[in-house]
Amino acid sequence: MTGKTPRSIEISVPADTAYEQYKRFEEYPVFLPGLAKVEVDGDTRVRWTYEAAGQQASLETEIFDDQPQRSVSLRLVEDGDHAWTTDFEPLGSDRCRVSQRSDGAGPADGAAFAAQLLAHMSASFLPQFKKHLETRAVQPK
């Protein structure tokens, strides 16, 4: 995979709380604009349904690496060249750094709209995730 794009943000919650909330994929539409629905199928499959510019698209991802309280890696099922990892680094007992890095080649034929939506989500995710965590009390699963 090529094209690594790292991003990070500090959040005023413990790293384990951020990790647990990150894995609550079904709650993402509450704080992530354009994301209409998230469905979790089993322990590793996640279907994301987006609405943008009057169009709807769905993506299916799989968790291919999950290191509890430390990191989660997902990739597109249809195109394994698109993947991202989210890391959770403690910065004391009540703060953490959440970092994302993405890997991916150009979109496959017919996947351009889905790839644009994925890029949009990646760009806006960390600030929205931070706001969501810091404005509500989150209980671990």
Characteristic key phrases:
141 residues, alpha+beta, Alpha-D-Glucose-1,6-Bisphosphate, Chain A, domain 4, seven-stranded antiparallel sheet, 40% strand, globular
Characterization of the model:
The chain has 141 residues and is of the alpha+beta class. The protein has a single domain, classed as Alpha-D-Glucose-1,6-Bisphosphate, Chain A, domain 4, CATH 3.30.530.20. The chain has three helices and seven strands, in the order E-H-H-E-E-E-E-E-E-H. It has helices at 15-22, 28-31, 112-134; strands spanning 5-11, 35-41, 45-52, 55-67, 71-76, 83-90, 96-103. The protein has a seven-stranded antiparallel beta sheet with strand order 1-7-6-5-4-3-2. Strand 6 and strand 7 (96-103) form a beta hairpin. The protein is globular and about 40 Å long. The model is unreliable at 106-110 (pLDDT under 50).
In short, what is this structure?
With 141 residues, the chain is an alpha+beta fold. The chain contains three helices and seven strands; from the N terminus they run E-H-H-E-E-E-E-E-E-H. A seven-stranded antiparallel sheet has the order 1-7-6-5-4-3-2.
The fourth-level CATH homologous superfamily is START domain
Radius of gyration: 15 Å
CATH C-level name: Alpha Beta
Report the CATH topology name.
Answer: Alpha-D-Glucose-1,6-Bisphosphate, Chain A, domain 4
What helical percentage do the residues reach?
A: 10-25%
Tally of extended strands?
Answer: 7
The largest β sheet comes out as:
7 strands, antiparallel
Q: Shape, please?
A: globular
| Total count of domains | 1
SS strand fraction: 35-45%
Report low-confidence residues grouped into runs of 5 or more. Answer: 106-110
Q: Numbering strands along the chain, what is their spatial order in the largest sheet? A: 1-7-6-5-4-3-2
Whole-number mean pLDDT:
83
Number of helices: 3
Ends distance: 33 Å
